Amino acid sequence: MVKITLNHVYAVRDHWTLSASGTFDNGVHLVSGEVGSGKSTLALLMAGLFPVSGGNIENEDITTRMLSLQFPELHVTGLSVAEECASWGVAPAEILDAIGLAEKKELSPLSLSRGELKQLHLACVLEKDYDLLLLDEPFSSLDCEEKVKLCTRIGQKSQGVTVIFTHEQYILPRVHRIWEITEGILVDCGTPPGAFTNWRHLPPLIKKLTALGSRPDNISPDDFLEAVCRIRE
Amino acid sequence: MITVEFLCYRNLVIDALTIKPGITTIIGSNGSGKTTFLKLCAGIAVPDSGTLLIDDASPRETEIGWVNEFPDRNILFVNVFDEIASPLRFRKIPCDETDAKVSACAEEMGITHLLKRAVRDLSGGEKVLVSLAAALVHHPKVLILDEYDSHLDAQSLAKIEQGIRTSGAEYVIRCTQQMDTAVHSDYVLFFDSGRITHEGRPDLVFPFLKSTAYYPLLWGCRWSKSP
Question: Which CATH superfamily is domain B1-63+141-227 in?
C-alpha cells in the first residue's frame, strides 16, 4: 500500500524548527497552518528536497512523486506556452484546448496572467498519476470556477497519496484526513467530521454550521450545502 | 473620485466608470483583466487610449501603495527592515522618523519578529505581509492590492483587514478570489473578458452571480433557523 511515514522528523531553519510524525496513506490529506508555520518546508521535506535534521522518512511503494510549488513561475522552463506543456511530457493541443489557452500557445508562459499560469501548471501536473502528489497552495491565484474544477479533479484521483498544503477556507475537496501545524509541530487532527473538534484552523462556515447543530460530514461546498439542507428540514 | 472614460488597454475596454472613496473589490475569472486594471490604477501601465484619473490627477502624480500577489516581483532589498523602510528612504525622510514609522507599521501588522530576517527566508505569506507593510508605511492616498489574500491564513487576513480600514488610504482597490472577503466592500466590480459586466454594492452585484461559483458560500448557505 502506498504511504509515506514521518518518524520523529524535525527540520531546523534559522528561526524555527518543525517536528513531524505521522503516516500519510492512500487518499487526500489537508495540511493547514498559519503564515510561516512551515507548511512549504514540510512539503519540501516530504518531496525529499529539504534536509532532515533528525528522524527519518519512510516511503512505501512510492515510485513517482511530484511537488507543485506555491508560485507557478518557479516551474517554468519553456519559452512558449506550448513548449512549457511539452516540457511536462504532455501534448500541448489537448491540454491547452481543455483550459482555454489554445490561442496563447505561442506566448511566453510568463506573459500569462497569474491565474492562467497556475491553471496551465496544474493541468500539466494533474495530467499524470503520481504515487505521491504534494500541492503547495494549489488554490492561490485560481478563480472560483477553477477552484471548483480543481476540487473535482482531485476528488477523481483513485489512488496515491495527495497532500494539499493550503490556507483556502471555502472551496476545498473532500479529504480523508486533516493535519495542521501548530507552534512548529505537525498535529494529526483525524478524519472528518471528527477532526473538526481538534482543528484549530476550522473554516468559519464549519464553525457556524456546527454551532447550529448541523455539522457537515466533510469540508467541500457540497457538504456545507447538505448540512444547510438538514437545518432547513 | 476615480474616473475612467473610454479606456482601452490590451483586452480591457471600459467606456465609463466612477469609483468613490472607500473599498472597491474587483472579482472575475482568470485572464479577465483584473490585474491589468489594477496596473492602470497604479500608473504601472498607461492606457492606449482614454483616461483614468484619480481626483483629476494621473495615477503617476498620486501617492500609491501597491502589493503584488507575487511579492518577489516587487521586493528590492535583502532584509525586511530595509524593504519596509524603502518608500520612506526614497522620499528622503529623516532616519529617526523612518525607523519610528517602520517599527510602528510592523507592530500594527504583527510582523515585528520578521524585521531582522532576510526576505529570501520568508514564507510566501510572510512576504505578502512585508509587501503590505512597505505599501502602507508612507500612508498612500490609494492602496492597490492584487490578490494579496491568496497566501494568507484567516488570522493574518483579519489583522490585515483591520490595517486596511485604519490605514487612512482614501481609496482601496483590491482584487480577490475570496468572495466572503469581497462582500465586505463598499463597491464590487465583476470583470468578464476585459469588460465590467456588473458593478455596484455587494448586495446588488452578487444576486446576478447566484448560479455561479462566485456567489459567496456564506450567503449560499443562509439557513432558516436563526443562529
Answer: P-loop containing nucleotide triphosphate hydrolases (3.40.50.300)
pLDDT tens, A14-61?
Answer: 778 999 999 999 999 999 998 888 999 999 999 999 999 999 999 999
In terms of C-beta density within 10 A (0-12 exposed, 13-18 middle, 19 or more buried), how is residue B120 classed? exposed
Q: Does A5 touch chain B (CB under 8 A)?
A: no
A140/B151 CB distance under 8 A: yes
The pLDDT tens digits of the residues spanning A70-79 come to 889 999 999 9
Contacts 24+ apart (CB under 8 A), B201-207: B202/B25, B206/B179
Q: Could you report the per-residue pLDDT of B82-92, keeping only the tens digit for each?
A: 999 999 999 99
Helices (H), chain A: 39-47, 81-87, 92-98, 114-126, 144-156, 204-211, 221-232
Interface check for B139 against chain A (CB to CB < 8 A): the answer is: no
Fold of A3-64+129-232: Rossmann fold (3.40.50)
Helix, strand, or coil (residue B194): coil
Ordered by start, the domain boundaries in chain B are 1-63+141-227, 71-138
| ipTM for the predicted complex | 0.82
Q: Is A112 on the interface with B (CB under 8 A)?
A: yes
Q: What number is the average pLDDT over the span B190-215?
A: 94
Are B154 and A201 within 8 A, CB to CB? yes
pLDDT at A129 over 60: yes
